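Subject: Protein record for review, amino acid sequence with backbone structure tokens
Concerning: The relation between a protein's sequence and the shape of its backbone.
How to read it: Take the token row as a discrete description of the fold.
Enclosed: The protein record, placed directly beneath this head.
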Amino acid sequence: MDKVSQLLKFSNQVASDMDGFFDKKGPGKGNTSTNDYIKALGNQMEAQFGEDYSQKNICGENSSAVDFYFPDEGIAVEISLGLKYPNSEYEKDIFKVLLAKSLGKNIKKLLFISKPGGEKKSKQPFRLAIRNWLDKEFGIEIEVIDLTPQT
């Protein structure tokens, strides 16, 4: 199984294991919860593949990092749990991968992992226009996958 498929598998497992993961938490508690989630995912991936793919600074001499980066697959992953909200980091995350690509990083896809509603929001006209432009002009595909609450 490729790394991104494994990350997606772990994404739902870790979300299901975290009590109240799908509850709205707001600033502060939400940030802490997201950081805990990314750390748990990173630990799972490192145990599976023997390498840490999380919090990779691929944007040059600055502190910007993507949540996960798989250079051999050319995929950057952002855990953007609030993607469904108007003030998400959608555009900022896109600029991170554009900067990384301009610095010679292998970037073919930006994958967003979101709580339910992110995928639908990504299909609104403005975000769809950005998505199409990024693919046409830079050869970077955007994919948005919503986590699925386990019942």
Q: What stands out?
A: The two ends are 25 Å apart (CA to CA). The mean pLDDT is 90. Helices lie at 3-17, 29-49, 90-102, 118-121, 125-138.
